[in-house]
Design a protein that fits this description.
about 0% strand; about 500 residues; 19 helices; two-stranded antiparallel ribbon; mainly alpha; globular
Length: about 500
């Protein structure tokens, strides 16, 4: 084993409990983000609402996820506040899973999903931020694992809910007839994965709002609530391990005794960025070169595009496959979304090794070029069923590592001040919501073929922005070399709770 291998393993063993806890919290994030699509028709039956009404639940989750990502930076100032936010958010997700079966009105369900979305946003920001602070220049490998656990949770969630989904209409009207086959309902579920943007021509399905509700989806949510309970317990155990919470306050926090971690309080407000808007205060803008802000903007724009592409492809690849010229069968097309998410998870797993062997700019160049190439090929072979599956798999592999790689790269450029993590997480959440809405509108007005054209154009723009980021990085590095920095490059949070 080489010396770098030993150093990485030594760091991992030293921070074992912290690292495993942050990874488990992101499993909770993935569990929560993937259950809504498969269960949306059963939740419509539970709330006895129309399709147009139930799709507001998607918007509620996505919007408050963005809000949570934006305000998550407010909890970074101390280790106690960060871990408390993670504990509360993970516990909220379990509670939301438990109370969803009790929400018999779409407004109550939207509120519950909004609360869960905000908790997910806080987890997204704090989890990334704490792992970057923990490993700094070695964080790329551990960020890949962190985001692998999102994919793992997103794979587990549909497997848990699938046995409890209704195979026929789950609201039996007085004049009900068995006109709606299980394949029709599966087609409708897959179409609704696009967050309601493709809601048209659904009148052929008899979806009643009045009658006897015969859904068993409640059991799936209660099972997921139990599966998720060890996560807040693990965060609470970490809080006691770090001694930020204890029966006796006489012993100092554990981090104070570790020489490799600075426990110095942050005395300069310029270094303590809170929420995403807090870094725009005049006090925080002073003393930084223009390249500092350009790097934030470019990094945010890149993940806005790449996470937007993930959301668009996952949301609309089914609609594209069942539409002309492909006209793929419902069941076959329904596998595309699972293939895409499985390839993203496998890609993050494989990039754990690659991120150790290669630098982040090299990985990002290969990934972004691969995203562009595979989408060009999908446009060329637009009538091939086989190549759509191959392209979906390769696209998932290529795009999977962009966010953790760009996060590690941007924080490395900016000396791990933490503000880049907040900006990038917020930009990614915004891109996943906004780009999906924009592409959905284009598909609705011009046809499903425009779906691939839109994602190809945006991926090309993303690669151009990355090349510009490399150029700005070169300028910023020269500026840092020419001028002696006066700020502490290792901005660490206070470890005390008071």
């Amino acid at each position: 084993m080489t010396l770098p291998d030993e150093r990485i393993w030594s760091l991992f063993r030293r921070h074992l409990q912290q690292t495993l806890t942050y990874w488990s919290v992101f499993f909770s994030f993935g569990l929560c983000i993937a259950f809504l699509g498969p269960t949306i028709l059963d939740l419509r039956c539970q709330t006895q609402s129309t399709l147009q009404q139930i799709t507001w639940v998607f918007f509620s989750q996505q919007f408050f996820l963005l809000v949570g990502s934006s305000v998550g930076g407010l909890f970074k100032k101390t280790l106690l506040s960060s871990l408390s936010a993670l504990f509360t958010s993970a516990l909220i997700i379990s509670l939301v899973f438990a109370i969803i079966p009790l929400c018999h009105h779409v407004i109550l369900l939207s509120i519950a999903m909004g609360v869960a979305g905000k908790a997910m946003g806080v987890i997204d920001t704090i989890g990334n931020l704490q792992l970057v602070r923990l490993y700094q220049k070695d964080s790329a490998v551990f960020l890949q694992v962190l985001h692998f656990f999102i994919g793992l949770g997103a794979l587990v969630s549909p497997l848990v809910v699938d046995p409890f989904l209704a195979e026929d209409s789950c609201v039996l009207s007085a004049n009900w007839t068995a006109n709606s086959s299980s394949s029709d309902l599966e087609h409708l579920r897959n179409t609704l994965a696009g967050h309601g943007a493709a809601l048209h021509n659904t009148s052929q399905y008899p979806l009643y709002t009045e009658g006897v509700v015969v859904t068993r989806v409640s059991y799936a949510f209660w099972i997921m609530a139990v599966i998720n309970l060890p996560v807040p317990a693990a965060v609470l155990a970490l809080m006691f391990h770090e001694r930020v919470v204890s029966c006796s306050r006489s012993s100092p926090p554990l981090l104070d005794k570790q020489p490799h971690i600075s426990s110095k309080p942050v005395t300069d407000d310029r270094q303590g960025h809170g929420g995403v808007l807090d870094c725009c205060r005049p006090n925080n803008l002073q003393g930084h070169p223009a390249t500092f802000f350009i790097i934030h903007a470019l990094g945010g724009a890149i993940v806005f595009i790449t996470d937007g592409i993930i959301g668009c492809y996952a949301g609309f690849v089914y609609t594209y496959a069942v539409s002309p010229p492909l006209l793929m069968g419902y069941k076959t097309a329904g596998c595309l979304d699972s293939v895409f998410w499985a390839s993203i998870t496998a890609g993050r797993l494989s990039f754990i090794f690659f991120s150790y062997r290669y630098t982040a700019p090299v990985l990002l160049t290969i990934s972004l070029m691969g995203v562009i190439l595979v989408q060009f090929l999908l446009l060329i072979f637009y009538a091939s069923h086989v190549f759509l599956f191959i392209g979906t798999c390769v696209l998932g592999l290529c795009v999977s590592s962009v966010f953790p790689s760009i996060l590690a790269f941007t924080e490395d450029i900016l000396d791990y001040k933490g503000s880049a993590t907040i900006v990038l997480v917020t930009s990614a959440s915004t891109g996943e919501m906004m780009l999906q809405l924009l592409v959905g509108s284009v598909i609705h007005s011009t046809g499903s073929y425009s779906f691939l054209l839109c994602t190809t154009i945006t991926s090309f723009i993303g690669f151009c922005l990355f090349l510009l980021l490399l150029y700005i990085h070169h300028i910023h590095r020269n500026h840092q070399t020419d001028s002696s920095p006066c700020m502490d490059i290792n901005d660490q949070p206070k470890t005390g709770g008071s």
